[in-house]
Amino acid sequence: MTAQSAQTAVQTIAERLFEARRTAVAIPPIHDELAPLDISSAYAIQRLNTERRIKAGARPVGRKIGLTSQAVQKQLGVDQPDFGMLFDDMAHRGDSVMVKRAGLISPRIEAEMAFVLSADIATKVTANADLHRAIASVAASAEIVDSAIADWKIGIVDTIADNASSGAFAIGTPQPYAPDMDLPGRTMRLLKDGELKSSGIGAATLGDPLTALAWLANTAIAFGDPLRKGDIVLSGALGPMIPMDAARYEIEISGFPKLTVQAM
Fold first, then answer.
1. What is the C-alpha to C-alpha distance for residues 172 and 94, in angstroms, rounded to an integer?
2. Which CATH number is 236's domain given?
3. What span, in angstroms and rounded, lies between the C-alpha atoms of 44 and 26?
4. Number of helices and strands (H, E) in the chain?
5. Quick one: which of 243, 213, 217, 76 has its CA closest to 145?
6. How far is residue 18's CA from residue 15's CA, in Å, rounded to a whole number?
7. Which structural domain, as residue segments, surrounds residue 131?
8. What is d(CA 15, CA 17) in angstroms, rounded to the nearest whole number?
9. pTM of the prediction?
10. pLDDT digit string (tens) for 120-133?
11. Which of 13, 125, 229, 236 has the fewest Cβ atoms within 10 angstroms?
């Protein structure tokens, strides 16, 4: 593929993904149209649609980290996480929120920890301790992941191009951050209408949610778009995601207020 044809493919795929999101109608996988591990083109597609959303009035409020599970990385043939943008129109705040499935395509829900930053992170992070000064708070959160790719038949380039399969998110009451919070040891339970459906632990996110945040901070610097004060960062799933039907979901992460998501 020539450079010109590659750029044409990037623009064409971006337009198709943007239209899929606008109409809530899934499209076939795109990974056959790019090299299987053409991650740079996938992020170029994501950036084009980020720019489209901003021009349409959406405001970025942070980023999400995906593929923090080694098992999922192995499944997709990669050795690193990915990231997507969070926008204000995706956000639901509070310990009890309502999320509408209308406008989503094939939503799933997973439990995470969310960081809120107190400072820019504009210099390379060499140790997790470098992050302590930049974190204001941590909260229980729910990410509603959603794929514009039909039947979730995704490879790494599909999910990156599709804004890391982001749909919406909820963030509970933030707790002031302290270095001794032992985030890797926090346990998680995700219940659907009172029945346990998923469980996990903070260490599921690259061994420590701070490690995931450090990866994102350094990656954002490399992309020329560092994390900024006030950004929300979803640090990765603590356990398996589950389909999001019309139901009541409760996320219990030890040490945090319970987060309830009523999906309509």
1. 5
2. 3.90.850.10
3. 20
4. 5, 14
5. 243
6. 5
7. 3-263
8. 6
9. 0.95
10. 999 999 999 999 99
11. 229
